Task: structure prediction
Amino acid sequence: MRQGKNDEGKRYSPHDELIDSLKRENIIKSKLVEEALRNIKREDFLWKGEPRSVAYFDEPRALGDTGQTISAPHMVAIMLEEAGLRPGLTVLEVGTGSGYNAALIAYIVSRGINVESLEQPLVFSIERDARLVKFAKENLEKAKLGKIVEVVEGDGSLGYPSSSKEMKYDRIIVTAAAPFIPPHLESQLKIGGILLAPVGELPYQTLIKERKIRKGGGGDEKVEFSRERLMGVMFVPLIGEGAYRK
Ligand code: SAM
Result:
């Protein structure tokens, strides 16, 4: 891959250039997100046959003939920042695709944690396409993140485990467009947790950020969601029982 020098004579690569430009645009705001993006190489998550030189173009790339994509780096960075990730959190990602975003999430939530002592993965990522499940698992193994992320084949619109009501996740990140926020995902979010999802029609949606809050007390407790509309986005559809039916 092309290497060069910047104005101060420092060596840089297209990977560094992309990250520096996302920082200048204030899309990357935190050290944790920056370090994850620097340490996890997007080129390792491209479909076989894609030239490595395209890895750091700020655009989505097709995942072979699956009809699915690895999202554009700026979109990935925006969602990681909005999710407010930190070490130790348990995360559900819906839409594993290449495994790139799952790898970045895993990098952040496992910082400073002795991975050998983990009783269960910190990141669960669910994907409906079996070819992508295999592809993502291989990519995550190669990145040595297989112990931190569990990739599951299934319909993520029903959550994971499917239809469970256990409030299991601190964060839920949906990387495909849903017609509404799937209620099963809201059920599986912990109190104080954050859920991010592109919601709306196809092809354009709004990125929604929901927080689950406990209101009231003394036997009169209720769970509520505060909802923020962040920005306009374009995602492939979330296809499943709790989303688009095809
Ligand atoms: N996060 C991915 C990455 O880092 O490469 C990109 C995700 S891609 C934009 C959206 C993914 O959602 C596709 O791989 C698609 O197959 C998957 N998907 C769509 N509906 C789904 C569902 N109901 N459950 C799980 N995955 C689903």
Notes: Residues 144 and 189 are 27 Å apart (CA to CA). The chain has one domain: 10-233.
